Amino acid sequence: MAHWVWFILLFAELLIGGFSTQKLPPSNDGKLLSILSIDGGGIKGILPARVLEHLDKALKDLDPNADLAHYFDVIAGTSTGGLITVMLATPSPHDPTRAAFTPAQIVDFYQQEGPHIFNESCPGDGPEFDGVYFHNLTRDLLNDTRLNQTLTNVVIPAFDIKTQKPVIFSNYKLEDAPYLNALLSDITISTSAAPTILPPYCFVNDGVEFNMADGGIAAGNPTQAAVSEVLQQHGEYSEILVLSLGTGKVKVNESFDVEIAANWSYKDWVNNASQFFLRSSTTMTEYYLESLFEPYPPGQPYLRIQEYDLNPDFSNPFNVTQASMDGLDETGKQLLKKKALRMNLDTFDQEELGGLTNAQVLDRFAEILYGERQYRLKRKSMEKEGRPFVETLRVLSDKTQALIRNLFN
Prior knowledge:
This protein is an alpha/beta fold. Helix content is 42%, strand content 14%. It has helices at residues 46-62, 68-71, 80-89, 103-117, 132-142, 184-191, 216-219, 223-233, 258-262, 266-272, 274-293, 322-337, 358-384, 391-405, and strands spanning 33-38, 74-77, 153-160, 165-170, 201-205, 208-213, 240-245, 302-305, 339-343, 350-357. Strands 1, 2, 3, 4, 5, 6, 7 and 8 form an eight-stranded mixed beta sheet that branches. The termini are far apart. Mean pLDDT is 85; it is low at 1-30.
């Protein structure tokens, strides 16, 4: 299986406040702004989808009609994470106020469609797969829906191989760059066009030509891209809630023979060491994000959920055997039971964060998201009726802040 080097673009500092299910800017009194970010990783998207299923259920315990797009100001995704993002943010054809897919349905989608997307009987002319099934499936699922029609703001990176520049498909950019208001099917195919695996994808929108490859070339972990978009839009805000989901990393094998590497030629490095660049890039991305929150109190709400000891048998992003997909599914379930982790900025090791499991922290995330939404709904109702601020809103806001302070405790 061929590999490629994913280069992570580092963006400026952090962040923020506010939220709206209609993609409106946050209010000026410093409300919390929430970001969900999902990494790339092919069929390994099963893992974050299973994690999101837990959060979705926790929210539905509080609000039976909850959709994740109603509770996150921004959903960002690269490659397979971009696919999940679009599935969570696209309006359902049956009810335009609801999402087209729930996380549980996304897990089923991977299980059912993965073997057809990565079908060895459909080789590409160069890439491993021709991508025809995935292209047609994506168009059928998303129809003529465009970026400006999503239920919440989305941020989806891709890379233009002709201009050799990243392209960030973001609702925030549409006012100044209306040509980015592409079909969600074109955006999804673009961010998923993994080099050597699927062919580049070319399309024209609003007279502008796009020659696209996988978003992982620009940002395998799209959290920084999402933060940068938010910062440009709402730079004066100071409160943010970030949930960043990975698709699994195999534990480092420290028995690597350094003496052999010392004699590698340029070709050897290209063929054998791309994993070093990929791991170092993703690690530095996590380091950058963790360091942005490090000056804040321990309760500052940033959570990275990642499987750092992924079974090598399940690590191939394009292995769609039933055993591999079932293994990823079970890994996602077990990840919920593991302790929440945070990177030690000196050693780059992962350390337990507060002693809670990922599931327990997600339950608290759900309470915070629910409280913030209730605050906004009540505020919106009062403003519509021309009523002044009342103590009820202050109590709701104070409760949310208390939940944030104790998120990991």
